[in-house]
Amino acid sequence: TGLGRAYGAPNHFPGTNSVLYRNNGDETFSDISKAAGINILDPVSHHPEGKALGVIPLDYDQDGWTDLFVANDTVRNFLFHNQGNGTFEETAIFEGLAYDRNGKATGAMGVDSSWFGNDADIAIAIGNFANEATSFYTTAEGQLPFADEAITTGIGPTSRLALTFGLFFLDADLDGWLDFFQANGHLEKEINKVQLSQTYAQPPQLFWQCGNACKNRYQPVTHSGDLNTPLVGRGASYADIDQDGDLDLLITQSGRSARLFRNDQTQHHHWLRILLKGKQMNRQGIGASVSLVSGGITQRRRVTRTHGYLSQSELPLTFGLGNHDHVETLTINWPDGTEQRINTPAIDQLLTIQHPAIQEQPQ
Question: Does a structural domain hold residue 36?
């Protein structure tokens, strides 16, 4: 009552701490949040500051340790820099990730990260509330800090009206460049009665990346078949459900049925999908990075299950090759520091790669 909307805005609720659990190896977990430096308190009230809706693991400074980025709703975002000793330091303000380009906190929801330009630059994309463009923080020539380049990349203007929850990077057409997808939908069923520019159900958005060939790297795809259908989108994930090499999409809705969209790319682009098999306690190779060289272009991916908002996508990494019909090299950097190199693997297949330590074990 008195808030001007049918739901309570996040700034009317107290914050809460995120929780980090350590696996004890005996089917139990211990809460190590405070000792690890994950608990962030408001310097004035001394109450928890965070209002987290999204989290993504990444190694933003390439020091070999997994860091954590937390997207917060209406308060500043957090970036937890892994100190390598079981503790984290919160560095979002110093690295340019705490606020938007105008120095304001946003209604942040889902988050994803990638090496989006086939170079050293890392992007962190965040879905925001309606009338707040999607945030698209990037490094410049691989150097920190980050800057919000949503406008210059082309995503900002087209995403401004949308209320975005789930989002992620994927190579939708397998041309070798990571495209960008976001699932949209408002919170208020009758929002159109008070804001004519807004609707409850909103179409998802797919942005095609044209690489360095365009002034704006990302171009909105306006003809995407059933994907143009307005939805009350929340979570979103991808997987190759029909095993044809391209990535299909699953979108969950608020109070409505989930939607599954099959991707049938017709350009006959080549591809290679990689599934890692790790050793001992990290059997899925979480945190490993894979670099692929084809046609003189290096693509890079990180193994993680978390993308977007309350969603988990498939484990294999999908590399589009475009018209290139071979791969020169694959390089896997495992979380334990092991580097593995594979030359000229066959393409258009799902290739399972085991950690070298597994291969060396006696049969």
Answer: yes
